Amino acid sequence: MKAPQFQKWFSGLTLLNQPQRSRVQQALLPAAGLDQVIALIDTVRAAGRRCPSCDGAACHRHGHANNLQRYRCRACGRTFNDLSGTPLARLRLKGKWLDYVAALLDSAPVRPAAERVGVHRNTAFRWRHRFLHWVKLDRPQRLTGIVEADETFLLESQKGSRKLDRPARRRGGRAKRPGISRELDCILVARDRSGQTIDAVTGRGALTAAQLTRHLLPKLDRQALLVSDANAAYRAFANKHRLNHQAVNLAAGERVRRSMAVIIHVQNVNAYHARLHQWLAPFRGVASRYLPNYLGWRWALDMGRIATVEQLFSIVISHIYMKR
Ligand SMILES: [Zn+2]
Questions:
Q1: Ligand 1 centre from 41 Cα, in Å?
Q2: Could you write out the three-class secondary structure of the chain?
Q3: How far is the centre of ligand 1, averaged over its atoms, from the C-alpha of 54 (Å)?
Q4: Ligand 1 centre distance from Cα of residue 32 (Å)
Q5: Of 79, 131, 256, 293, which residue is least crowded by CB atoms under 10 Å?
Q6: What pLDDT shows up at residue 324?
Q7: What integer pLDDT is reported at residue 203 of this predicted model?
Q8: d(CA 107, CA 112)
Q9: pLDDT given for residue 29 in this prediction
Q10: 256-265 in b/e burial notation, b at 16+ Cβ within 10 A?
């Protein structure tokens, strides 16, 4: 719209009644969301814009496309925008992204998130995997000091799979056999007393020392004191790798024990399990193959580690996940 024409249109705004103002506001909302997301992308990228093909830092502006500035790399000559190489490249409906990020922060399941943001549920589902692609890599390098480890179980689920490798369970369902069986996915969680946490889906059924070697050993500081319950797998694992280890005998009613100046318990890791199960409940059964993503999502939100739309969105677009 040309400037004089806009002036005339704009001065007419004062004549609107309340329902009309409300309609104009509604009509501008997607545009406001778009402006906001574009500004945020620019802020995050401006500091260190690099060519996603050759990592060159020198580039110049090269037109616009899809509401984004394009750039041309001086070194390799390829063009890119601020989302090239990120999980959000070529994703549509930018004006709705920040609302969607807010839904992720609120741990909204797919359907409620879709309704809230105003997209199809397939879109909400696809977006979840794009926006949460980074969470699998977001884990501490090392657990140090006193490290509590314990496993928890979830009913194995083939939700969304076309072929089941076992008879179907009636809606939701529960395990046929009591106790720990191959019907359950085992989730190992280890947490040190500074709150650094790792998790792993170790497989179906009871935890083994070999699985601890695979999933816990690479993250465990060799000077750490490993604390577990009386499960023999931890003892075997600790003996094999000559780790400091203390066990609390929960089965015998022992919850907390003192050893020298150290208070031995697994209450931090058990509280983490409790938060995980409570958080998973509204999702009404999580497909086993997506479990690692959910664990990562949970860790991102744990104790408000990632708490704002801007913070979460910045992480999503800082995470380059493919070379073109
Ligand atoms: Zn380049």
A1: 20
A2: CCHHHHHHHHHHHHHCCHHHHHHHHHHHHHHHHHHHHHHHHHHHHHCCCCCCCCCCCCEEEEEEECCEEEEEECCCCCEEECCCCCCCCCCCCHHHHHHHHHHHHCCCCHHHHHHHHCCCHHHHHHHHHHHCHHHHHCCCCCECCEEEEEEEEEECCCCCCCCCCCCCCCCCCCCCCCCCCCCEEEEEEEEECCCCEEEEEEEECCCCHHHHHHHCHHHECCCCEEEEECCHHHHHHHHHCCCEEEEECHHHCCCCEEECCEEECCHHHHHHHHHHHHHHHHHCCCCHHHHHHHHHHHHHHHHHCCCCHHHHHHHHHHCCCCCC
A3: 4
A4: 32
A5: 256
A6: 43
A7: 94
A8: 10
A9: 78
A10: eeeeeeeebb
Could you tell me the distance, in angstroms and rounded to a whole number, from the CA of residue 53 to the centre of ligand 1? 5
Rounded to the nearest angstrom, the distance between the alpha carbon of 59 and the centre of ligand 1 is 8
pTM: 0.85
**pLDDT for res 175:** 67
Q: Which residues of the chain have pLDDT under 70?
A: 160-162, 164, 167-178, 320-324
CA 85–ligand 1 middle distance (angstroms): 12
Give the distance (Å) from ligand 1 centre to CA of residue 173: 53
In angstroms, what is the span from residue 84 Cα to ligand 1's centroid?
A: 12
CA of 67 from ligand 1 middle (Å) equals 22
pLDDT at 156: 87
CA of 72 to the centre of ligand 1 (A): 8
Tokens 């499960």 appear where? 231
CA of 323 to the centre of ligand 1 (A): 11
What's the CA-to-centroid distance between 310 and ligand 1, angstroms? Answer: 28
